Amino acid sequence: MRQRADQIVELVASEPIDIEALDSALDDSSHRRRVSAIRDWSGDVQARLFERCRGRSTRLTDLVPAETPPLTEVIHEGRNSLPAFNHFQKRFCAPSEAHSSGDTRERLWGYNEQSMRPLTGPGYFVAHEDSEAGEVCIDYRAVPPEAPATWPDVVPADNRLGRFVYGGTVDRLRRVSEHVTIGRAFKDDDEPMDNWFVLVRTP
Predict the structure, then answer these.
(1) By residue range, what is the domain housing residue 108?
(2) Residue 145 lies in a domain
(3) Among 104, 122, 163, 165, which is 20 to 30 Å from 113 by CA?
(4) Is the pLDDT of residue 84 over 90?
């Protein structure tokens, strides 16, 4: 296992990144090792990895497995490229049956759990697939109609100070491995921002 951890470090430092080898190394690691690895990924690593993962088909089921019941929380541990407050969680769930489209899930609901939540709010979003780009979009401009009972009250992402963090933002996610995705923030879906992040799904 230690060999795999060292290999992950070497792979993300290489130019270009061998994405297939990184995929395998991450899949062969434990959840704890995956989270430990991404905690050290700098903004430069995240930016290069996002570009390297262009075209790797990403689905909603990469975030919430298909067998997960509606309104069941799936936690993703995150690290972003900001200089501070860069550890966080994105928490996802599938919609309730009242808001789903049958067997095919067309969206997910979620929010951000992080130390600044009392000031910025929960940053609620709706996630959907961009099939043309092969990416998942996390849209902070949309508000879920409900949430699991254990989640904070649903409010628009740009409520209070949240407008400076989430307002008008759409994150785009690309698949790295079975449990890991890499993302970049965009303003209104088309203006890229210098803000990247990596997520590790809890098994």
Answers:
(1) 57-201
(2) yes
(3) 104
(4) no
pTM of the model: 0.93
In 3D space, the residue among 189, 184, 187, 140 whose CA is nearest the CA of residue 166 turns out to be 140
Domain at 69, CATH number:
2.40.160
d(CA 70, CA 72): 5
Contact 177, 27 (CB under 8 A): yes
Query: What's the pLDDT tens digit per position in 143-187?
Result: 999 999 999 999 999 888 889 889 999 999 999 999 999 999 999
Confidence of residue 47 (pLDDT cuts 50, 70, 90): very high
Report d(CA 201, CA 89) in Å as an integer.
Answer: 10
Q: Indicate the residue type of 131.
A: S
* Residue 26 in this model has a pLDDT that exceeds 80: yes
Q: Is residue 74, in this structure, part of any structural domain at all? A: yes
How many structural domains is the chain composed of? Answer: 1
Q: Tokens 């060292």 belong to which residue?
A: 6
DSSP states along 33-80? HHHHHHTT--HHHHHHHHHHTTT----GGGTS-TTSPTT--EEEEEEE
Residues 120 and 123: their CA atoms lie apart, in Å, by 7
Distance CA 2, CA 141 (A): 42
Distance CA 196, CA 172 (A): 10
Sign of CA dihedral 85, 87, 88, 90: positive
